[in-house]
Write a structure and sequence with these properties.
mainly alpha; 75% helix; transmembrane
Length: 344
């Protein structure tokens, strides 16, 4: 529920609040909202700057950095990490800015693979021909030490600072780890994508269940489960959607799973479930339309009608959402009903 200043002014006109109370309440809500992630301009700038800084030391690394050598890369990563830790302490404890502090702390975690990579190059345990820029593109079991170290650093940072954005590199690294361990654990070639799809599907399901467990145990507004939900659903839905089949029965099962995601998203008030469930329903309807009308001139017109039909379904869903929520919650245990009431 979003409260606006005009709503408070209307409450004053109706005698529900006094003018001074409305001002005090508005200032309190405005100050509190600055510590909650949203689409405020300042928050967009926070995340944009942070992601650029993180990307510069991770995704956009190039072969030119090998001029520093292994020890140089390790030392540079350590220096940046120490500066990031000092900045995190200042932002969090002195300036009371939790969102920028979380982004800078995540920058520290993102430096861990580079530091471990440098140590591996320096000690000769990793061939220098394996460029660091491949870490985010290629699946290779030799990245395991980098990923395990990142998980340890992320867990320590999360334990120390309790900042929700730190869950993001933790979830991402767990996904990387699950992919890189496939050829190592199952003794399959790197090109065995069928196995990777199944691993992605089951790993995503486990991460989503972990997010639900964290959600159940969390009573703060920081929402640490958000990133776990996002990466869990992304990996689960991607693995599920990439398991292509010609069986319409399998496609119907795919539809049922995505409809279930929509229902869970409504129940938990989690938009991520609704987004992926809605995408899945759209994929199913597009596939079905293609199979029925692919040799017909009506195909683009029917697909357009399907698109507008989905929009209409969204309108109906919005109008009936409160009734659906009430019906779903009535069939849950009392403890779950209390928890959902608190979340809302």
């Amino acid at each position: 529920m979003n409260i606006t200043r005009p709503q408070l002014d209307e409450a004053v006109r109706r005698g529900l609040l006094q003018d001074g109370q409305a001002d005090a309440l508005w200032h309190y809500l405005d100050a509190a909202s600055t510590e909650t992630a949203s689409l405020r301009t300042t928050h967009v700038l926070y995340y944009l700057g942070g992601l650029i800084a993180i990307g510069s030391m991770t995704v956009f690394m190039n072969m030119g950095w090998m001029l520093f050598g292994g020890w140089g890369l390790a030392g540079l990563s350590l220096a940046y990490a120490l500066a990031g830790l000092l900045a995190t302490e200042r932002l969090l404890h002195r300036m009371k800015l939790r969102i920028p502090a979380g982004i800078v702390a995540t920058f520290v975690v993102a430096l861990t693979p580079l530091g471990v990579y440098g140590l591996q190059i320096a000690t000769g345990t990793l061939a220098p021909e394996r460029a660091y820029e491949s870490y985010h593109r290629l699946i290779d079991w030799r990245w395991l030490w980098m990923e395990l170290a990142t998980l340890v650093v992320a867990a320590v940072m999360l334990w120390r600072y309790r900042l929700p954005f730190l869950v993001m590199p933790l979830a991402l690294t767990l996904w990387y780890l699950s992919m890189d361990m496939v050829p190592f654990v199952f003794d399959t070639p790197d090109t065995d994508w069928a196995m990777r799809k199944f691993v992605s599907l089951w790993f995503g399901l486990l991460m989503t269940l972990l997010a639900l467990w964290v959600d159940l145990r969390t009573r703060t507004a920081d929402d640490p489960a958000f990133w776990l939900y996002l990466f869990g659903l992304l990996t689960f839905w991607s693995g599920l959607s990439l398991l292509r089949t010609d069986s319409q029965l399998d496609w119907f099962g795919y539809l049922c799973i995505n409809v279930a995601l929509l229902a869970i998203g409504t129940l938990l008030a989690r938009r991520a479930f609704v987004v992926f469930g809605g995408l899945g329903v759209a994929v199913y309807l597009s596939q079905l339309t293609y199979e029925v009308f692919r040799e017909s001139l009506l195909f683009p017109f029917v697909l357009t009608a399907v698109g507008f039909g989905i929009i209409g379904l969204g309108i109906v869903w919005q109008r009936q959402q409160a009734r659906l929520d009430a019906w779903l919650r009535q069939h849950l245990p009392a403890t779950w009903q209390d928890w959902l009431a608190q979340r809302r």
